[in-house]
Each structure stands twice: as structure tokens, then as C-alpha cells.
Amino acid sequence: MRPEPTFKRIGIISRPRRSNIAEVVPPLLKWLEERGMPSVYDNETATVLKNETAGKTRHQVAQESDLLLVLGGDGTILAAAREAAYHGIPILPINMGSLGFLTSFTVEELYPALESTLAGKATIEERVLLQVERTHNGELLTQQRVLNDAVVHKGTLARMIEVELHINGAFVCRYRADGLIVASPTGSTAYSLSAGGPIVQPGVESILITPICPHTLSDRPVVVQDNSQIELYLSQSSDSVFLTLDGQTGVPMQIGDHVRITRAAERLKLIQPPNKTYFEILRNKLKWGEA
Questions:
Q1: What pTM does this model have?
Q2: Would you identify the CATH topology of the domain 10-121+274-286?
Q3: Least C-beta-crowded within 10 Å: which of 58, 66, 216, 276?
Q4: Nearest-5° angle of CA 175, CA 176, CA 180?
């Protein structure tokens, strides 16, 4: 007797600009339908279908699903993660391009991964998200959860900015740099890594603070407990300074802006291949050991 599926309704989120999405989605929908598995898909996925059935917003897809099947790359995962974590549903990530740090299943593994997941045999990791709030004179201007990072950085002008860092209410230092990255362990392999930050296993309870091209070479990355409260102040007037969230949302900042970053209450549930370790993904992505 086959076990009852854990998930009753599948949500599909994709990046339609991937050339093979149009080849993958129609047979996927047919596969789900043949197994009596209802599905719902986003507006982007609907654009590759020949029928005129409309898609839904990603928020609606997550709201109406028990499992999110995400077809794309790490960028698509970042966008879907906020909705999945908010609704407490897991993501099954399928990479449609080169190997990603988050999309660790290949297209060839799509159906075996679905079979295993629907049979209740999935390996699910929990990933910490960060809650980011920007205020000015006590007024809340920006509020968003991020999976990777929040970055205060200069815009187009080739001049440094000055950012003041406080941790748990205590002054730490005033950075003069091109910017400052505050990242989760998941985000340690993103922008923070390119700026010289350490690689941190996803399960390590930490937050990373990495300066971008600091004026003082002794300004090094710092790792703190993930129950810390990180506060950033733009302490010097400068043109063209932005707060960028997960590399997807950017808002301009002004002198006196206060950014507070804490561990979010929600966590992302990310389905992982049972036979593919985190370090195997690192080796493949970072080309470790290759000449």
C-alpha cells in the first residue's frame, strides 16, 4: 500500500525567461493531474502555457499551497522564500541552469524528487531569515524578510560612505567603506563571500557583518550570534546610498536613516537531496580542488 501523500496541493513558481521552462511545465502539470494532485501556478509560469488559464500572484500561490515547487535559479528561490516562510510551507527547488547553492536538484531529478517528497520521504532543512526594518525619525519606511542579506552601499559615485554599527545597543565602530553587508549563514556564499566574508554552514546560529572594500584594512568581517540586534546608521551625508535586500529590492537612504536587522520569527523549510551534502554543493559550485 502506498503511503498517503503529505502534501495535498502543489504551487509552482518559475522564472519563464529560462528557455526550457516551456518544455518542463506542461508535462509537469499533466504528471500532477494524472496523480490527482491539484496544482496552482504563478502569473510568470502562466505565460509559457498555451491555454488561457490565468496564473496567480506568488503570494496567492503560496497561500493556497502545501508545497512550493520552484523552477529557476537561486534568484527565483530568494523571491519565493519570503512567501514560503511566511506561510510555513516548504520549497522543493529545481535548478533550470547552472548549479546553485539553493537550487540543488537538477531538472533530471525533478520527478524522483517529487515522488520522494509526496511520499513523505523528503529531507527538509530549516534556514534562518533576517527581518530588516528601516526607519527615519521613528517612522517605519521599509520592512522585509531576507534569506541572504541586507546591504547598505554606495550608488554610482566612486566615493566611500560612512556607516555606524551597533550590536545589542553597544557601539561597535564606524565603517568608511563602499558598503556593509549583513548576511545570514545561507547568504554567506552570496555577496558576503565575494567581499571576503567566511563560509558558514546553514545550521550555524549566526549573523555575518562584512565590510565592502573598507578604507581601513583592519576592518574585518565579524560573526555574531543570530539572536543579536544589528543596527546601522548612515552617519555622514552622501549622495546615492541604497539599502538593497536580497539583491532584488533597493531603496534610497538618507542621513539619519536607521536600519535594524534581527533574526526573523519565520524560517524557510528547504527540501534537500538526501544524497548530496552541503560540502558537495560547495565543491561543485566553487570548483574546489580543480587546477
A1: 0.92
A2: Rossmann fold (3.40.50)
A3: 216
A4: 60
Alpha carbon distance, N-terminus to C-terminus of the chain: 51
The torsion angle over the Cα atoms of residues 66, 72, 73 and 77, rounded to 10 degrees, is -20
Q: Where in the chain is the domain with CATH 2.60.200.30?
A: 129-265
In a 3-state reduction of DSSP, which class is residue 245? strand
271 and 123 in contact (C-beta within 8 Å)? yes
Query: Is position 66 annotated as part of the catalytic site?
Result: no
Over the Cα atoms of the chain, what is R_g? 20
Q: What angle do CA 90, 62, 129 make, to 5 degrees?
A: 55
| Residue 62 near residue 40, CB atoms below 8 Å | no
Q: How confident is the model at residue 22 (pLDDT cuts 50, 70, 90)?
A: confident
Catalytic residue among 74, 149, 246, 257: 74
CB-CB contact of 127 with 93 (8 Å): no
CATH fold, domain 129-265, is Tumour Suppressor Smad4 (2.60.200)
**pLDDT score, position 237:** 65
Instruction: List the Cα angle 216/164/258 in 5-degree steps.
Output: 150
pLDDT tens for each residue of 187-228: 999 999 999 999 999 999 999 999 999 998 889 999 999 999
104: nearest Cα among 288, 286, 281, 283: 281
